[in-house]
């Protein structure tokens, strides 16, 4: 499998993968399954951001909060539900989902698929070469016969505010791994991390203040999504302050109360402050300059996830900035792995859209769920995005609470659905659902968009009664009736 040189620090493989999060693991699994010897490099925990500081711990925190919210809408249960949640069991369950921040199980999986692990910081050292500085301080040089895959992800981006370094603010990592509920939590931002963590920590009893620079939440989604969410967060006791900026942070010694000076000169005090103000690529010390690429930048890739101008370097997941979502990164990794295997065999790679050879990454049907109360599920283009792209489209809206399944799901069910219909081609360009439990509607919309299923055919996809999915029928009827 492995060709070892005269020096133990030099080894050659078919494929070298840098980054052992879910994206890197999927790339390594796909190339190894194709018969290519593959090694993976990781500087932190095998399993990456998603397993320990993002998807898994955040959803473990949110699930009890959302279950409680559903229960409070049902007679017979509402009277039995107390608020806030008991934090201890919730945090303990969260810890179990992160394997208590130990990666032994993930390492066992790599062993089971015959992918060796090299621990340490890996950086490019010229074409097809990765130099890994191990925890012991030695340097191992890994050479790839066919491809190097960079799957190093992204990190939280902090604004350059006076006092921010000394204040030791939370980022998404601290927000998902904290062992105590803060009495007062200030959250700076209005995106997904901000609203999910506001939901989670408010449900655990924290007094949450949400400081939003813009005028609304989740500004990349349909406007009604942020509007419905803001209303519900406010009803749950979250103090939302739109049009608010932070000018300075003060917390001498990094302990005790943190004081925020706001843009209007007023101050806000909190026990912790979370800055959820964007992401930056983990590429600043990746050796990109050794292959004439810009360090610290997002690393662009084509639809087979290969970096333009190279025939051996691939960028997958957050690093290529196509979609900062774990499931999309894993999808890209499978595409990259399949393309690498085909090229290693001398085969022509099919780069056409919807490649049946699975060597092209689509970006027309990217799904996303925001796990808040209400849930928000979206895929494809918003109305504004579709119009900006030059498509002749029509938005079709429906109140989800009008269908029997929603009324049965919860008393006073409030939610909204929107389809973006391409009037020239007769298929969907986008879909958005807002309401309790709507995340389970999303895959049907993803299939409809990815498959370019004609609306005339969707009429024959009959939703079960009485379920929330009956909203699909109501949306099609609204389109037919011109409403």
From TrEMBL:
Residues 13-328 form the FAD/NAD(P)-binding domain. Belongs to the class-I pyridine nucleotide-disulfide oxidoreductase family. Its EC number is 1.-.-.-. Keywords: FAD, Flavoprotein, NAD, Oxidoreductase. The keyword Flavoprotein applies. The keyword Electron transport does not apply. Its cofactor is FAD. It comes from Streptomyces evansiae. InterPro entries: Class-I_Pyr_Nuc-Dis_Oxidored, FAD/NAD-bd_sf, FAD/NAD-binding_dom, FAD/NAD-linked_Rdtase_dimer_sf, Pyr_nuc-diS_OxRdtase, Pyr_nucl-diS_OxRdtase_dimer. Residues 366-472 form the Pyridine nucleotide-disulphide oxidoreductase dimerisation domain. Signal peptide: none annotated. The lineage of its organism: Bacteria, Bacillati, Actinomycetota, Actinomycetes, Kitasatosporales. This is NAD(P)/FAD-dependent oxidoreductase. GO terms for molecular function: oxidoreductase activity.
């Amino acid at each position: 499998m492995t060709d070892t040189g005269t020096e133990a620090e030099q080894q050659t493989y078919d494929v070298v993968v840098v980054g052992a999060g879910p994206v890197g693991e999927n790339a390594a699994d796909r190339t190894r399954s194709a018969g290519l010897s593959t090694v993976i490099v990781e500087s932190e925990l095998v399993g990456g951001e998603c397993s320990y500081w993002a998807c898994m711990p955040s959803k473990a925190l949110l699930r009890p909060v959302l279950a409680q919210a559903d229960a409070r809408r049902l007679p017979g249960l509402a009277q039995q539900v107390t608020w806030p949640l008991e934090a201890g069991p919730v945090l303990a369950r969260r810890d179990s989902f992160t394997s208590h921040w130990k990666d032994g199980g993930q390492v066992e999986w790599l062993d089971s698929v015959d992918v060796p692990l090299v621990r340490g910081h890996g950086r490019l050292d010229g074409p097809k070469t990765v130099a890994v500085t191990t925890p012991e301080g030695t340097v191992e040089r890994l050479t790839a016969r066919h491809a190097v895959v960079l799957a190093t992800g992204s990190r939280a981006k902090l604004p350059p505010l006076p006092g921010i370094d000394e204040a030791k603010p939370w980022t998404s990592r601290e927000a998902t791994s904290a062992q105590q509920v803060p009495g007062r939590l200030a959250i700076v931002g209005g995106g997904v991390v901000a609203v999910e963590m506001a939901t989670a920590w408010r449900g655990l009893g924290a007094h949450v203040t949400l400081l939003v620079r813009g005028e609304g939440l989740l500004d990349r989604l349909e406007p009604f999504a942020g509007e419905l969410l803001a209303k519900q967060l406010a009803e749950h006791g979250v103090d939302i302050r739109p049009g608010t900026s932070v000018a300075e942070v003060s917390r001498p010694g990094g302990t005790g109360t943190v004081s925020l000076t706001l843009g209007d000169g007023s101050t806000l005090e909190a026990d912790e402050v979370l800055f959820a103000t964007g992401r930056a690529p983990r590429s600043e010390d990746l050796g990109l300059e050794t292959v004439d690429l810009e360090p610290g930048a997002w690393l662009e890739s084509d639809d087979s996830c290969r970096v333009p101008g190279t025939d051996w370097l691939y960028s997958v997941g957050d690093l290529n900035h196509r979609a900062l979502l774990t499931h999309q990164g894993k999808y890209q990794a499978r595409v990259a792995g399949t393309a690498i295997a085909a090229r290693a065999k001398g085969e022509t790679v099919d780069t056409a859209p919807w490649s049946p050879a699975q060597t092209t990454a689509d970006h027309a049907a990217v799904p996303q769920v925001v796990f808040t109360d209400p849930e928000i599920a979206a895929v494809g283009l918003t109305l504004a995005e579709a119009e900006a792209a030059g498509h002749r489209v029509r938005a079709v809206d429906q109140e989800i609470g009008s269908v029997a399944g929603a009324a049965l799901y919860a008393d006073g069910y409030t939610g909204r659905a929107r389809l973006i219909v391409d009037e020239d081609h007769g298929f969907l360009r986008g879909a958005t659902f807002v309401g309790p439990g709507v995340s389970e509607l999303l895959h049907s919309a993803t299939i409809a968009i990815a498959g370019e299923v004609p609306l005339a055919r969707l009429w024959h996809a009959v939703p079960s009664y009485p379920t929330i999915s009956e909203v699909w029928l109501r949306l099609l009827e609204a389109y037919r009736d011109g409403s």
